[in-house]
Every structure is written in C-alpha cells, then in structure tokens.
Write a structure and sequence with these properties.
Length: 115
C-alpha cells in the first residue's frame, strides 16, 4: 500500500510516494512550513477585483491513498499568500478542519486522519 503526496504550487505539480501515512504527513508538514515561510504576502489587483494575501492559495499539498486508483483518504493543507495554513479533508466536498486550542493545522490533519 502506497501513499501519494501531491504538491501544487503555481503551475508546477510534484508527486511523491511513501510507504506509510506518517512519512507522507511528515513530508507534507515540512514542505508546507517551507512554503508558508516564503509566502509573498502581496495583494493581486485585477482592476475589477482585488485579492488580499489571505484570500490567495499559493500552494496546495494533498495526501491520498492507500489505494491506487480510487483512494479512500484525501486530505491536505492550503498555504495562503500571507503564510497562513488551512487543513482540509475530502476532494470534491471539502471539509475544513478546525484546529483545537493550541493545535496547528498539521496536528489537526493528523488527528482527523487518525480517527
């Protein structure tokens, strides 16, 4: 059984495979923190509408598996332009995961996948 980590950052898509969920989540957290630290933090003005950094998703990291063709688990994090991170579960019907007191979005993701 293999777990897949998909990173979408701008026009680039990078995929990695892992033998266990823990390894995939560790890689997701490390890459998510790296992307959040390098977030540009600038607004985008399209003349018709202005997008503030907290409204922009600059990267999406998604873990799926363990099945190959139709994964039973799909979850990940969105990294916003201001460096904030938001965890989610699902793909088409996305359920945002609310961290508990003192919990990071990565810990909320691990908690949701452990249950």
């Amino acid at each position: 059984m293999r777990w897949k980590l998909t990173e979408r950052s701008g026009p680039r898509v990078k995929r990695s495979t892992f033998d266990d969920l823990t390894g995939a989540l560790d890689a997701l957290e490390a890459r998510g923190r790296e992307l959040a630290d390098s977030a540009p933090g600038t607004a985008v003005d399209l003349k018709v509408r202005r997008f503030e950094p907290e409204q922009q998703v600059i990267a999406r990291l998604e873990v799926s598996g363990p099945e190959r063709f139709v994964p039973s688990v799909r979850a990940g994090v969105d990294v916003h332009g201001d460096g904030s991170v938001e965890a989610f579960r699902g793909r088409v019907r996305r359920q945002m995961l609310d961290p508990r007191d003192g919990e990071s979005p990565y810990a909320a993701l691990r908690r949701a996948l452990a249950s």
